[in-house]
Every structure is written in C-alpha cells, then in structure tokens.
Write a structure and sequence with these properties.
Length: about 80
C-alpha cells in the first residue's frame, strides 16, 4: 500500500505548521486507520483447531456433568455473582 502525502513549505511558514498540515493530510488519506486495522488483525482458526477445541470443551462439560451427578460438585456455588 503506497500513499503519497506531500506537503511543501509556503512562504515563511514555521516547521510546526508544516508538521500540522502533514498530519492532517495523512489523517485525510485514512492510511493510519488501515495500518492499525492490519496491525491488530487476527486470523481465523483452522477447521482442525476449531474441531479439537470443540471436542475438548465437550469432554470437559461431560466430566463436569458426571461429577455433578455424583455429588462431588455442589449445585450452587456461593460467590460474587450468586443471587441470594
């Protein structure tokens, strides 16, 4: 991606004014938004990883349900979000 944002000095313009105009010109091109979007882009998981993750969570759920039926895990857990 190549974006040209050129600014030339006009008369007796100060350096700060040139930098200010340049940053406004860059913001106008929306280049920073595109760069930041690409920077934090996360890839989608592959089908195999998705399936494996699903199998692991299904196994953990089955194990939890089994322990709950055996009475090794209480029905309600007192805690921060428990309603009294």
């Amino acid at each position: 991606m190549k974006i040209i944002a050129e600014v030339k000095k006009q008369g007796s313009e100060s350096g700060a004014a040139i930098i200010r105009r340049f940053t406004k010109r860059v913001q106008g091109t929306k280049a920073l938004i595109k760069v930041r979007a690409d920077r934090y882009f996360t890839r989608k998981l592959s089908k195999l990883k998705t399936k494996r993750r699903a199998l692991v969570s299904m196994g953990m759920r089955a194990n939890y349900d089994k322990l709950k039926k055996l009475g090794k895990i209480p029905d309600k857990v007192e805690g921060r979000h428990a309603h009294k």
